[in-house]
Structures are given as structure tokens and as C-alpha cells.
Design goal:
The protein is of the alpha/beta class and 214 residues long. It contains six helices and ten strands. The strands form two sheets. A seven-stranded mixed sheet has the order 3-2-1-4-7-6-8. A hairpin with a 7-residue loop joins strand 6 and strand 7. The radius of gyration is 16 Å and the shape is globular.
Length: 214
């Protein structure tokens, strides 16, 4: 049963609208996903989305570490950031295989913007982080890393490497699947990723239309 997981932590830029629009895009362009789960600390009520309460008060992006909690899913599982826009066929996201987005700036490093695994296979990420969250959230906890910002994906990359796991990258497995938003061009897709300050709510043209389409 392919499952897409996204995380909405209160106190930031995102709200239920972002969950609704991501879910709508998934239903339209990646219907192979049987379930959409949103881990959140808000009273979320979005059609076709299962609300799963966050158990911890881990701040900001660290809340994404709860996506690896044991028992949430079986079968292919995709962690997907809320600021992802689907503009075309994207059922490939629901296929089998440990696969991650390669970091846009740091080649060879895992990004948690899109991360797929067989249900249960990455339970150890949650176990390791939950055992010592204060340790892992401290910059430098993973030693020297090329990433400019110490966040969840730095820890995920470190823990995967510690276990000898090296996910295949989406960009290499599916060369035509991911596209990084560039305001200088109109057409993007089928899976549009936003880097830096660019976000769907400030996008224009067909990407903005795809995000807001009812």
C-alpha cells in the first residue's frame, strides 16, 4: 500500500491550505498512492488526508523525524515536503526502492524533501533521534558536513551512512521526474521542487496555476 507522508508543524509559514493543495496534486497526478498521512500538531481536517498527531515538540524541520516512527506504514512510503507541486504524471514516486532526492547544492548528499523507503525499513532513524534529540539538533553533531544549514537531512544522511545505506537518487533513477523551480521559465514538472526563498505561494505561471487548481 503506497503511502505519502507530509509533516505540518505549527508556528511556521505553512497551514492546512498547503496540505490540501499537495494532497490534491497527489490525487490528480500520483493516484498510485493509496494513503496520504499528515503528521501535525494542528487540528487538521483535509479531505482524503489522515491526520496523525505529532508525539514530540521537536521544533521546525526536526518534526520530520517523526515520519520514521514504527508502525505508520507498510509498503512503499514517501516523505514529501509541503512545498512540492505536481504538474504532471508522477506515479513513479510510489514505486518500490530506497530512494532520495539528491541535495541540490551538495552532490552525493541526501535531501529529505523527497525520501522513499519500504515501510519499516527506516525505523532506526526515529529510534536514534528520539533517544537523543538534543544531541542531534546541535550544529556540528554530525561532524564536518558540506551543508550550510544543520537540519534533519544532515542527520538523516549521517545515520543512513552509519548503517551502510546509500539510497539511489531520484534524479538518476528518473531523469525526467524532478524539476527545480526557476522563475525565469514558465514550464516545469512533473514534480516541481522549490529551493531557497522560492515557494509555491510566490510562484507564477503554470506552476502557480497547478498549485491553486481546484
Amino acid at each position: 500500500m503506497p503511502t505519502l507522508i507530509t509533516v505540518l508543524k505549527s508556528g511556521g509559514r505553512y497551514d492546512a491550505t498547503w496540505v490540501e493543495r499537495l494532497a490534491r496534486g497527489v490525487r490528480r497526478h500520483a493516484p498510485s498512492f493509496d494513503r496520504i498521512l499528515c503528521l501535525t500538531d494542528l487540528p487538521l481536517a483535509v479531505a482524503d488526508v489522515e491526520r496523525v498527531p505529532l508525539r514530540h515538540d521537536w521544533p521546525a524541520w526536526w518534526a520530520k523525524m517523526e515520519a520514521f516512527r514504527p508502525g505508520l506504514t507498510t509498503g512503499p512510503t514517501l516523505l514529501c515536503d509541503l512545498d512540492t507541486v505536481l504538474t504532471g504524471p508522477a506515479n513513479a514516486l510510489a514505486e518500490l526502492g530506497l530512494t532520495a532526492m539528491e541535495d541540490y547544492f551538495h552532490k552525493g548528499r541526501v535531501s529529505s524533501a523527497l525520501l522513499r523507503w519500504p515501510g519499516g525499513a527506516l525505523d532506526f532513524l526515529y529510534a536514534a533521534f528520539a533517544a537523543e534529540p538534543e544531541r542531534w539538533m546541535v550544529p556540528g553533531a554530525c561532524g564536518p558536513v558540506p551543508n550550510a544549514v544543520h537540519g534533519d537531512q544532515v542527520v538523516i544522511d549521517r545515520l543512513l551512512r552509519r548503517e551502510g545505506l546509500h539510497p539511489e537518487f531520484f534524479q538518476r533513477r528518473y531523469p525526467e521526474l524532478l524539476d527545480f523551480y526557476d522563475p525565469r521559465r514558465a514550464d516545469h514538472g512533473p514534480v516541481v521542487i522549490f529551493i531557497g526563498d522560492s515557494k509555491p505561494d510566490t510562484a507564477s505561471g503554470p506552476v502557480r496555476a497547478a498549485w491553486t487548481e481546484v
